[in-house]
Amino acid sequence: MARKFFVGGNWKCNGTSEEVKKIVSTLNDGQVASADVVDVVVSPPFVFLPLVKSSLRPDFQVAAQNCWVKKGGAYTGEISAEMLLNLDIPWVILGHSERRLLLGESNEFVGDKVAYALSKGLKVIACVGETLEQRESGATVEVVAAQTKAIAERISDWTNVVLAYEPVWAIGTGKVATPAQAQEVHYELRKWLQINVSVEVAESTRIIYGGSVNGANCKELAAQPDVDGFLVGGASLKVCILIVLLKVPL
Ligand SMILES: O=C(CO)COP(=O)(O)O
Fold this sequence. Notes:
Elements (H helix, E strand, L loop, with lengths): L4 E6 L6 H13 L8 E6 L5 H7 L5 E4 L16 H6 L4 E4 L2 H6 L4 H14 L2 E6 L3 H5 L3 H13 L8 E5 L13 H18 L2 H6 L1 E4 L8 H5 L6 E4 L6 H8 L4
Parallel strand pairs: 1-2, 1-8, 2-3, 3-4, 4-5, 5-6, 6-7
Helix pairs in contact: 5-7, 7-8
Bound molecules: 1,3-dihydroxyacetonephosphate (13P).
The site of 1,3-dihydroxyacetonephosphate has 14 residues, from strand 8.
C-alpha cells in the first residue's frame, strides 16, 4: 500500500495569538490536496494548542511539540500525554534535535517518551538526525540508526509513528540536504527498519524530511522514493509557503 504523504508544520517557540489566528485563517482558506492523499499536521506552541485546535479546518490535525515521559505529577513545566489526549490533540513531536541538543534529551529518554506517548494513544512524529560534525566524520547512518534503535527497542507497534529525518546542519540554516543526501539516509533508515523490525514496518512507516524545506526545494525532495513528506519549520510560519508545499504533486 502506498504511504500517505505527510506535511507537518513545526512552529517551534514562535508566534503571538494574533499571528496564530492569521496563519490558521490562511490555512483554512487554502486550496490543498484532500485529506485522502495528504496528512497535514500543524504544531503550535503548547499555549496555542486549544486556539488552533478549535479554529483549524477539520481535515487538518494538530500536534504538540513535546510531552512528558510518563504520567503527570510533580514535574513543573511539563505537559503529559494524558493532558494532550484530554484536549483531543492527536499528535506529538518527540526527539526534536533542539530538545536533544539544547535540553540534553538522550536516545533512551526519547525512546521512553515515544513508548509512553504511543501507549496512551498519541501518534508520534519521532525525530532523528546527525550533526554536521557527525556527518563529516562519516557517522550519519550510525547516528540515526542508534536513535531509531532506542525507539524500536521500546515499542512493538509502528502504526502510529512517523519518522522524521532532520539533519541538524540543515535546520534553520537555509542549507537544505540535497535530494540525493535525503534519499540516501531515508533509504538507510528504511533498510534499518526492514532488518531490525520487519519488512511490513519498513514498507508502511512514513519517513519524512525536515531541514530548510521551502516552496522552491520541496518538489525535488518529494520526488525521492523514500521521502514521504516533510516537517517544515521556518517556512510553515509563512503560510503561503506551507500552501505551496501542500500542492506538491504526489
Ligand atoms: O526543525 C525543523 C522542523 O522540525 C526544520 O526547521 P527549518 O525548516 O526552519 O529548517
